[in-house]
Amino acid sequence: MRIKAITVICFTLGFTSLLAAPPPVDLDLATTEVSRCYGKAHPEVQEFVLLTARSFGPSGMWLNENAYATLTPEQREARVVYLAKLFDEAEYGRHLCAGLAEASALKDARLVPGLMKVAAYHVDDKDYDCRPKWLAIAALARQESQNAVPLLVSLVDHGNQNTRFWARAALARMAKDDFKADKQAWNKWWIDQGHAAIDSKFLKPYTPPRSE
Length: 212
Description:
Elements: H1 2-20, H2 27-37, H3 43-56, H4 73-89, H5 97-104, H6 112-119, H7 131-143, H8 149-154, H9 161-175, H10 183-192
Helix pairs in contact: 2-3, 3-9, 4-6, 5-7, 6-7, 7-9
């Protein structure tokens, strides 16, 4: 009876995981999203978003917006709670990447603090793996959270190409404009929206690591 019960539990978990598995990336849907949501970004930024879909979609590191549309409310809630805890408490590293891609297709305000934590990761005077960082920024782009704006502005001139282009894409999605790597212009836009000026620490130019 115990073996049978374990078998049933394993089958149920497997079936649940199959239900949660996203469909393959649809590049037509990705193109539509770029046109609808990033249409005011510079063409180079739009092409970069499409490049992300083409390059990372096959490995599951990039998902369409509707990738989890078939989840039940209970399944969706469980994943949001799980991912929020993961991003908030885990160490920075590539083991977060699959979850970050999943979060990009699960729009929920509870994910924003953890995504911001991963996106803000930085080590002074040292190169580090930026994949979790820019995947978190890509997920923040779809969240369209104003709480992330100062952080995103701080990253528009980052030394890592994926990071800076995705920071611009995320801001352009909200602003319906693109001020490129001009942090002061982004700050002016932010103030014009009725917000207090962005803290000066976010407006400092990016400083590359020193050569050893």
